[in-house]
């Protein structure tokens, strides 16, 4: 008997056909993730190392461009900022946003893109988005690894609050999974959803204070920002990493409620439409 | 063991994709239903091969998809004990960018094998597929036959209890098809249940214990494979008759002076009473002739060709010493009877009316592929090749004396030498 079998609810979960299907497809999910990360690069010279290239380049760009070049410029305008403060602020937000938007976009396109699997193999529709989340998580973890290395280099303190980052990230995953699943189902019926999502993500990025600071916005917008899920997430990471304090309780609780509410909606929607969904894929 | 009870499946047909969403939201019906399968009940016992026959659109693919779990039925019960895999035209979820080797892993996992199982079976899969060094090439470089070989190898090595086979098998070359058939028989002998969907009536007769005929989403026949094939043929024949302008086409396809012509004709096997007969069965061809001019000594000729257009056998009444004479406006009937000692396959009958020995002199009426028939299965003994030649085998105590001029095997060299110096 392994550890997870002792967890409460395990027996109940085993009796749920959907949960069992997800459980049984875990090896496949892991394999798809592996394929996404490593085997996609087979035949290339660097191979699996390519997975590390894009997070590394991201970090380097943010650090070099924004601390040495932009930072100097900003100082010229009289802004008093620490040399790396903006880079750290930016990276906190960017890494989370990249994971968020990439996975949301990909999960939305999932059933369409993996049509060749869904229409040929009895694969659990609930489990497919997990492979996307897993892939993006690995990329995120690599990015955070580089980020931590950079912080150590510039003598920025790493606190115990880092231990809470996985928790916030897990909430983020629940949110993306739930929203993505809902959108993926709708996208099967309405092709436009895919396009809408990519446009909305673009606007969302600029609406959310990721590259700029919250304080430059008018007061009422600042107040409203606590209802922007992306901002709540980004701000939570910043609290943990930069301010070394717990995130604001209310917004993150609301976010968690929203995430689980969406999850319930997505599951309900799939339950209602799965038969029809498989017919029209 | 596959146990299917009262299975129903309808597809909703929408005029516009947005209607589907509108219906989901408003709940008002905006679709037309298409009943793909209605009230299907059958069972495949362990160690049994069940054939499924049916025209295009009869519901065969839908049935396979439901069994495979890719589609979900409206109502009804599907019980399958153990793993179900198959060789399906609908594909197996291969990723064409990955190599054969990587696809073995991916596909194995999709079929529900564990990594240990896959690793244990990997060599056997590779050996069976006979892909050699190609196993390390991306799948997009494979021919369809090679893909099929890999798919079959993985599917059969996944240790299923139930196996689905459809037309995909016919992609392989003869050698590999034989190999697959052998493996399917072994699988059957070991107690597996097989569902065999095919248009190859001969294969259905050879392989299946029982067969279903699906027609318009219902089971039209369930029983002995031979009877199922006959039933299926009757459906097909009816369809052929329904085709409009059939009579007209016949005459359009004919050429000649039309001094005398065939106005109607049919053929049937003596036992089967249909255009599907067993090898060795008597074939009856009936022709109705009508003349515009008075002709004495018309030659009626028939020519049987196989599906490649190769002449298999032909003769005419002149060769047989039976001339037919006819006066203007008169109608005459010709009845031809022959023993169809030919190999299973599809054949056409070309009919010609002409004078004298061949049609090159005075051709009155000639129609290529006027009638069609198919030979499936054997009435008596099986033989190989295109036709049966009467043959006996005996075991005398001593060999009959060898004629002086004939050559025993091993004297081939002297034979060629002899030919060079006549």
Automatic annotation (TrEMBL), chain A:
Primary subcellular site in the record, as a coarse category: membrane
This protein's name: Transport permease protein
TM helices/strands, residue ranges: 49-72, 84-104, 125-154, 160-189, 196-214, 249-270
Every ABC transmembrane type-2 domain range: 46-273
Localization per Swiss-Prot or TrEMBL: Cell inner membrane; Cell membrane
Keywords: Cell membrane, Membrane, Polysaccharide transport, Sugar transport, Transmembrane, Transmembrane helix, Transport
Pfam family, one: ABC2_membrane
Cited InterPro entries: ABC2_TM, ABC2_TM_bact-type
One GO BP annotation of this record: polysaccharide transport
From TrEMBL, chain B:
Stored Gene3D superfamilies: abc- transporter (atp binding component) like domain, P-loop containing nucleotide triphosphate hydrolases
Molecular function, one GO term: ATP binding
Keyword flag rRNA processing: no
Keyword Amino-acid biosynthesis: no
Residues annotated as domain ABC transporter: 2-241
GO CC annotation: membrane
One Pfam family in the UniProt entry: ABC_tran
Top-level taxon in the UniProt lineage: Bacteria
Coiled coil stretches, renumbered: none
Keywords: ATP-binding, Nucleotide-binding, Transport
Region: Disordered, residue numbers: 398-422
InterPro entries, alphabetized: AAA+_ATPase, ABC_transporter-like_ATP-bd, ABC_transpr_TagH-like, Bact_Polysacc_Export_ATP-bd, P-loop_NTPase, Wzt_C
Family: Belongs to the ABC transporter superfamily.
Protein name: ABC transporter ATP-binding protein
Organism: Vreelandella salicampi
């Amino acid at each position: 008997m392994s550890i997870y079998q002792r967890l409460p609810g395990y027996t109940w979960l085993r009796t749920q056909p959907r949960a069992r299907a997800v459980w049984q497809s875990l090896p496949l999910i892991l394999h798809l993730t592996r394929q996404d990360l490593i085997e996609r690069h087979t035949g290339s010279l660097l191979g699996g190392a390519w997975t590390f290239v894009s997070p590394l380049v991201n970090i380097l760009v943010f650090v070099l461009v924004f601390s040495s070049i932009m930072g100097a410029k900003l100082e010229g305008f009289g802004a008093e900022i620490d040399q790396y403060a903006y880079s750290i602020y930016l990276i906190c937000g960017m890494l989370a946003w990249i994971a968020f938007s990439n996975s949301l976009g990909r999960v939305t396109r999932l059933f369409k893109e993996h049509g060749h699997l869904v229409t040929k193999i009895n694969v659990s529709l609930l489990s497919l988005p997990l492979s996307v989340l897993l892939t993006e998580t690995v990329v995120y973890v690599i990015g955070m690894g580089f980020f931590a290395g950079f912080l150590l280099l510039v003598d920025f303190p790493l606190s115990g609050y880092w231990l809470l980052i996985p928790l916030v990230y897990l909430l983020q995953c629940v949110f993306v999974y739930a929203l993505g699943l809902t959108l993926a189902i709708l996208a099967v019926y309405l092709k436009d959803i895919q396009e809408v999502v990519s446009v909305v993500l673009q606007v969302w990025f600029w609406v959310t204070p990721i590259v700029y600071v919250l304080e430059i916005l008018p007061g009422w917008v600042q107040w409203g920002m606590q209802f922007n899920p992306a901002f709540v997430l980004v701000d939570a990471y910043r609290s943990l990493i930069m301010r070394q304090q717990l995130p604001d309780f209310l917004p993150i609780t609301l976010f968690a409620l929203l995430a689980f509410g969406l999850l319930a909606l997505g599951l309900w929607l799939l339950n209602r439409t799965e038969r029809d969904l498989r017919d029209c894929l | 063991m596959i146990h299917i009870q009262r299975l129903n499946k309808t597809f909703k047909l929408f005029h516009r994709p947005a209607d589907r969403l509108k219906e989901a939201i408003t709940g008002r019906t905006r679709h037309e239903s298409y009943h793909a399968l209605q009230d299907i009940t059958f069972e495949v016992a362990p160690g049994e091969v069940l054939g499924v026959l049916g025209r295009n659109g009869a519901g065969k693919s839908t049935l396979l998809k439901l069994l495979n779990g890719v589609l979900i039925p409206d109502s009804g019960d599907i019980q399958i004990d153990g793993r179900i895999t198959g060789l399906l035209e609908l594909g197996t979820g291969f990723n064409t960018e990955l190599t054969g080797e990587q696809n073995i892993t991916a596909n194995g996992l999709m079929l529900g094998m564990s990594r240990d199982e896959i690793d244990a079976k990997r060599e056997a899969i590779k050996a069976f597929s006979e892909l050699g060094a190609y196993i390390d090439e991306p799948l997009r470089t494979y021919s369809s036959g090679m893909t099929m070989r890999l798919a079959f190898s993985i599917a059969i090595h996944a240790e299923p209890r139930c196996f689905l086979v459809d037309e995909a098998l016919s992609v392989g070359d003869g050698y590999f098809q034989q190999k697959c058939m052998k493996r399917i028989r072994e699988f059957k002998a070991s107690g597996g249940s097989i569902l065999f969907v095919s248009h190859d009536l001969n294969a259905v007769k050879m392989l299946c214990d029982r067969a279903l005929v699906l027609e318009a989403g219902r089971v039209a026949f369930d029983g002995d494979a031979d009877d199922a094939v006959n039933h299926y043929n009757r459906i097909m024949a009816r369809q052929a008759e329904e085709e409009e302008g059939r009579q007209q086409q016949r005459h359009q396809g004919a050429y000649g002076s039309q001094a005398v012509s065939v106005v109607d004709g049919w053929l049937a096997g003596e036992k089967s009473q249909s255009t599907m007969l067993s090898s060795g069965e008597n074939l009856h061809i009936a022709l109705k002739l009508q003349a515009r001019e008075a002709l004495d000594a018309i030659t009626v000729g028939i020519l049987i060709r196989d599906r490649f257009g190769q002449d298999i056998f032909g003769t005419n009444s002149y060769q047989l010493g039976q001339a037919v004479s006819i006066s203007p406006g008169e109608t005459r009937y010709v009845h031809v009877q022959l023993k169809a000692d030919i190999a299973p396959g599809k054949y056409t009958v070309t009919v010609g009316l002409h004078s004298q020995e061949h049609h090159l002199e005075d051709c009155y009426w000639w129609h290529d592929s006027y009638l069609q028939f198919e030979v499936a299965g054997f009435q008596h003994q099986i033989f190989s090749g295109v036709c049966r030649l009467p043959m006996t085998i005996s075991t005398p105590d001593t060999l009959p004396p060898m004629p002086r001029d004939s050559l025993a095997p091993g004297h081939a060299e002297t034979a060629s030498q002899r030919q060079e110096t006549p």
